[in-house]
Amino acid sequence: MHHPPPLPPPGVPGSRLRQALADLPITVVGAPFPLAAREIERQGFAACYLSGAALSAGLLGVPDIGLISLEQLCEQTSRLAASVETPVVVDADTGFGGPDAVAEAVARLEAAGAAAIQIEDQVDAKRCGHLTGKQVIAMDEMVEKIAAACRGRRSPETVIIARTDVRSIATLEDCLDRLTAYRAAGADWLFPEALTSRDEFLRVGQWLTDSECIGLANMTEFGRGPLLTVEDLGAAGFAAVLYPVTLLRLAMKAIEVGLELLADEGSQQNLLDLMQTREELYDLLDYDPAHPEAWRQRLGIAPEEC
User: Fold this and answer.
1) Are residues 129 and 227 in the same domain?
2) CATH number at residue 24
3) Do 61 and 157 fall into the same domain?
């Protein structure tokens, strides 16, 4: 029988994430699978991110329109959290329903090892945050969801992130109004999605500084806003900078190019310099093929089961 590595108690990952904020700004990188999470950790990034868009595309091959179930999200959260000590920030989309559903989702994701859980204010039939045609729920409804999320966590160390998508359909002032309300409702971090210019990032960053709030800036590629540096965003007032789909995009482009060359040349010989070697893979996995029993022991597999 396979026994996954034990997860830390609820609150411990959140405490690690909060401690990381001592060295601002932090960088949060999307991990499309556990092996990528191990590389993120090895390179010293502060946190991994489980993107709903990356999970939808990578797991099911479908767009980011709210098709991932809570069960699937919990399973992937557990896989990532078990593979690294780096805190895992989880995109829970709209929270899978009303306040009661949000509270349940937060409790289950926290139990699965999440350090932080992100809820957004789109309607349940959501869209990617950088597309047009989005709709948001009323501010009061989202306030109820945030309050429910805070009630649902077992530990106050678990971070609740409130994302607003209102900027795509209203003004920056409306965005700031929602951030104010969401902070008052108990959100630990604030996530203004799809800001459109450097000036908007600077204005929101100044508001975050003045309000003494922790803000997350999304640097997703091919979106509505500019790609600013971590240093610039930190100076503007953001505490964390997010790269949700960067690694998946890199991997898929490499797969596309590799398949084209394989089809053209009938061999992968000219791709070898671009590949992770067997030795590099084993090093990343902390695996000695001469002693496979060490990994079996980590997984709790008894000798008689091997």
Assistant:
1) yes
2) 3.20.20.60
3) yes
Structural domain of 104: 12-244
Please state whether the predicted TM-score (pTM) of the whole model is above 0.90: yes
For residue 210, the SS3 value is helix
Same-domain check for residues 224 and 296? no
Report whether 306 contacts 2 (CB < 8 A).
no
Give, in order, the Cα–Cα distances in Å from 272 to each of 36, 39, 83, 210, 276.
Answer: 19, 20, 27, 52, 8
Burial per residue of 174-195, b for 16 or more beta-carbon CB atoms within 10 angstroms, e otherwise: ebbebbebbbebbbbbbbbbbb
Q: How far apart are CA 62 and CA 57, in angstroms?
A: 5
Instruction: Name beta bridge partners: 48.
Output: 29, 88
Cβ atoms of residues 105 and 117 within 8 Å: yes
Find the mean pLDDT for residues 139-145: 98
pLDDT 10s digits, 1-29 = 455 677 888 899 999 999 999 999 999 99
Q: How far apart are CA 187 and CA 24, in angstroms?
A: 19
In degrees to the nearest 10, what's the CA dihedral of 54, 59, 62, 63?
A: -10
Residue 1's pLDDT is 44
